């Protein structure tokens, strides 16, 4: 399994997940840069993702939604703040009210994220770091199942790459 560590740090309002993939950094980067590939692994398998907009560039925006088995759409957005190709990217990740206009949901937290990729033998070590504005915001997403959902999503990547 790709996820090798999950660290919840309420004192610093941080959730850090670490993974190892059996693919080089460039291949992992390509997956995150291409919305059609990212759709295959963003979110749990029973909630497939759609990225109608994906701009992995500083100042870029991504819009996505995950569709439940019942057809309900859960929307979100990224506001990309920094990109260092094949190394890391940073973005603000928030929940949207709907998948029509992707307006931010003011009742749910926005996190500041950095996804970092480093060579590790023949594979890649990935660190997914999310920082929340308050410990209450972190507690809210943890209660919503953020760790379980993200773990399920990230653990799909090796299998996707094998079948690619």
Please specify the SSE layout and strand pairing:
Blueprint (H helix, E strand, L loop, with lengths): L2 E7 L4 E8 L3 H9 L1 H4 L10 E6 L6 E7 L5 E12 L3 E8 L15 E10 L2 E10 L2 H9 L2 H9 L2 H6 L2
Number of strands: 8
Tell the overall outline. Answer: globular
Average pLDDT metric: 95
Sketch the major β-sheet. Answer: 8 strands, antiparallel
Helix content: 10-25%
Distance between the termini: 18 Å
- pLDDT < 50 stretches: none
- What structural class do the secondary elements suggest? alpha+beta
Task: Give an overview in words.
The protein is an alpha+beta fold and 164 residues long. It has one domain: 2-Layer Sandwich (Alpha-D-Glucose-1,6-Bisphosphate, Chain A, domain 4), CATH 3.30.530.20. It has helices at 25-33, 35-38, 135-143, 146-154, 157-162; strands at 3-9, 14-21, 49-54, 61-67, 73-84, 88-95, 111-120, 123-132. An eight-stranded antiparallel sheet has the order 1-2-8-7-6-5-4-3. β1 and β2 (14-21) form a beta hairpin.
């Amino acid at each position: 399994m790709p996820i090798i560590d999950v660290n919840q740090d309420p004192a610093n309002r941080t959730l850090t997940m670490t993974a190892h993939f059996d693919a080089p950094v460039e291949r992992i980067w390509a997956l995150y840069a291409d919305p059609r590939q990212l759709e295959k692994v963003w979110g749990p398998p029973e909630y497939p993702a759609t990225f109608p907009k994906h701009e992995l560039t500083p100042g870029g925006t991504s819009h996505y939604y995950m569709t439940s088995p019942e057809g309900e759409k859960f929307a979100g957005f990224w506001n990309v703040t920094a990109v260092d190709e094949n190394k890391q990217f940073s973005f603000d990740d928030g929940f949207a009210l709907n998948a029509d206009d992707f307006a931010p949901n003011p009742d749910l937290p926005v996190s500041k994220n950095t996804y970092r990729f480093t060579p590790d033998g023949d594979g890649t070590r990935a660190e997914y770091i999310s920082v929340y504005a308050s410990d209450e915001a972190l507690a809210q997403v943890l209660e919503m199942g953020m760790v379980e959902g993200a773990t399920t999503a990230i653990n799909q990547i090796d299998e996707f790459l094998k079948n690619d």
